[in-house]
Amino acid sequence: MNKHGGYLGNKEQVIDFSVNISPFGPPESVKQGIMESLEAIEKYPSIDGEDYRYLLQKAFSLDKLDPRQLIIGNGAMELIYLFARSLKPKRVLLVQPTFNEYQRAFELAGTKVEYFILEESSGFSIPEDQLMKKLENLKPEALLLCSPNNPTGVYYEKKLLQRIAHVMSTWEGILFVDESFEEFVLDEDLYGNEESTLFSAEDSSGDNTGSETAPLYNTGIMNMFILRSLTKFYGIPGLRLGYGIGHSSLIEKLLEHKEPWTVNTFAFKALEKIVFEKEYPRHLTEWLKEEKNYLEKHFQELRNLGLIIYPSSVNFYLGKIPGISAKLLQEKLLEAGIYIRTCEDFHGLDHEHFRFALRMRKDNEKLIQALEKLLTD
Predict the structure, then answer these.
(1) Stretch 339-363: mean pLDDT
(2) Least C-beta-crowded within 10 Å: which of 1, 64, 122, 225?
(3) CATH class of 28-274
(4) What is the pLDDT of residue 201?
(5) pTM of the predicted model, to two decimals?
(6) What residue spans in the chain does CATH classification 3.90.1150.10 cover?
């Protein structure tokens, strides 16, 4: 049975750090657009979002893509399950620890799921030689990884991902990269040029490893499926909106298995507004930079008290206090009106690991103070 990790109690009295989405909520333009389009519920929405693929293409600098290389989903989640049941691969490899829904989606499709567990001692980085050896031995029909990764916050270099995809192309394997948190990455050397495009022209060939500053879809590598979420960055989890990028033949196969009208009228209206948003991304990025600087300054003080916090490229952190279960920590923090996410259900993590997201300054201050009090009592 599916279970959401967010806090389900009295939200007025508890600050929920477990949910890693924008704390600003949706842009005002999205709210206004939905209010102005209430009468549109009398009509069917676009059956598969074909017209909106052109909008995505223009708005997110995907102009070098053919719209047939894009698919819009009811959140990134729909596209994960759609990919699994459309392709029904015999075997996939998951880079763990990572988002649990990948495993569930493929197991429901009857796929054998194998794991490649990353070591905590190496900061959950990918040992390229070992992964390549595992891939060569298993030859899975798909490799799934999340970059930046949930829950570790680790960003995997694009050149590494391109090399993985190139190796997998020798047996027609597909590299599935979930980039749902890509927009939260601040480092320009990692995130790259926003004016670049993702999956370049379909007639590209050869081992085009591209540049680390160019998004993955600008590589010309054909055997990749790249997943993006608009839910997280734009604070619209109740609307559900995401999109995928891949070769047109793969997208066509996904569309053949996709139910009609899965994306509702209000989600499409939100997309119409989001694509023209300029102030919201700028404001959120400035906030993220300030809050990461604030927290990381205080993390050093907490590390001296025994807290372990792993480096993160995005808007959430993985941590633990050796000798203290995350469940106990969760209960203690809840007494202070703070809720965090325990991570014992992630492969490769244990009962001590927990995750928390960035929130507004007053909330982050309360978290730091509560952790300091627990560590010094």
Answers:
(1) 98
(2) 1
(3) alpha beta
(4) 41
(5) 0.90
(6) 15-25+279-376
